[in-house]
Each structure stands twice: as C-alpha cells, then as structure tokens.
Write a structure and sequence with these properties.
Elements: H1 10-36, H2 45-63, H3 66-75, H4 83-88
Length: about 90
Amino acid sequence: MNPVDDIWFKGQRVLRTLIQGVAAALPVVVAILLVTQDSIDAAWLAPVLALGVGIQTWLAKIMAIPAVNRWLSLNTPFGSVPKAVARTL
C-alpha cells in the first residue's frame, strides 16, 4: 500500500478553483440579470448554467495539463508544485 502524498500549496489549489468558479459564473450572472430584466425567457437559464459548469470543467482540465501547471508554478502563484520543483520538470 502506497502512502498518500502530501498536497503542496493547498491555498493555491483553492485559488485556482476560485478562479475557475468566477470564470464559470460569469455567463450565469449575465443570464440571471437578463432574466430579471425580462430581456429573455427564463428557459435560457438552464442551458447557461450548463455552460458555466462546462467552462469550469474545461478550465480545470486545462490547468491539470502538466505544461500548463508548470507554467502556472513558474510564473504565477497558482501552480500546484513549488517553483523549484517546476524548474526540474
């Protein structure tokens, strides 16, 4: 049985998820604003919510690509490994 590795940078993972959530929420917020202003029918809200979930899933998948994670680790505070480790990858 292998021991579970410690998760590096728990805070950065939370921040990455927050960024994904904000990006995914933007179309939902726009749709809600439009519905409340009677600009569109409320039937559009469900597809826009699905779009938001799709965007968040897509961003999570992109951030999980090793080259993207390496770039995030080296150039931003949102990488999931220490900068010194990212340099060796």
